[in-house]
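Researcher: Re-running this chain for the archive, since the previous output was lost when a drive failed. Same request as before.
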Amino acid sequence: MGTVFEVGAALLGACVGSFLNVVIWRLQQEDPRRRSLGGRSHCPHCGALIRWFDNVPVLSWLLLRARARCCGGRIAVRYPTVELLTAGLFWLLAAWPPFGSVVVAVPGGEAIDLTAAAAFALHALFLSFLVALSFIDFDTQLLPDVMTKPGMAIGLLAGLWPGLAGVLSNDPSTSVALRSLLASLAGLLVGGGVTWLIRAVGSAVFRREAMGFGDVKLMGMIGAFLGWQAALLTMFLGCVFGAVLGSVGALAGRGTVIPFGPYLAIGAVVAMFARGPILHFLFTTWPEWQRSNPTAPLWLAGFAVLSLFALFVLVRRGRRSG
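Model: Regenerated structure tokens:
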């Protein structure tokens, strides 16, 4: 059943990715009538309705050879990329769940753990938000409120699910649900608050907006879903990924205008799946190495500051906040 669940999760992810393509495209339209997420999909070139057999994730793109059946307009590789990415993330979520396996062994066979299944659904929704926001940010340098604000609210509601964002304390006199909700609230405040502070400092240093306010709301959403420790780890990893990949892009001649949201999303995914090993390295393995290497903290601090400074230099742009 475990393999079947993983394959099913990947197929579900591909279908969700197909819907995310609609979300990404429609939320970028200036005409309010074209921003609605309801109704059937239309060809972006001629406006014709897309029939169901031409809307099968990935497969239709391959069979149509990246051309619309109705008018021959080119179908961007972005569409199967989003579908495959979402399918991969859902498969990863099923294969290496950060919350415990959905399929568990029981006497006489296997069964679905409903608690883990609910956690799977909430994390899948979180990953879907990250995918859609990342591609919108790539295109527009905006993180729209219509996604970040509901994301924060859903993250807080998800915090009612015991342990999803961790627990704020181990006090047995307080219910696990309340401690989990407080952990989610702390994650929202820490994620959004730290990002707002970094934004304020960067703007003061460069005397212009260093990053959009949409990044603050995105980090609030990430913290609400994953907790305050993962929010801080996400910010650190986002700065590192942004600085490294942004520098590579700049050296490749792609310019220095980059969105920060996708790198925060990458950091959030890494923090979500590898928080335990990374935190063990930072707070167990690393301190042991520090004791034998007194200059280690200076190296880490210098690397973090350098990454953040490089990122600010790359992100400098006249960006509107979402």
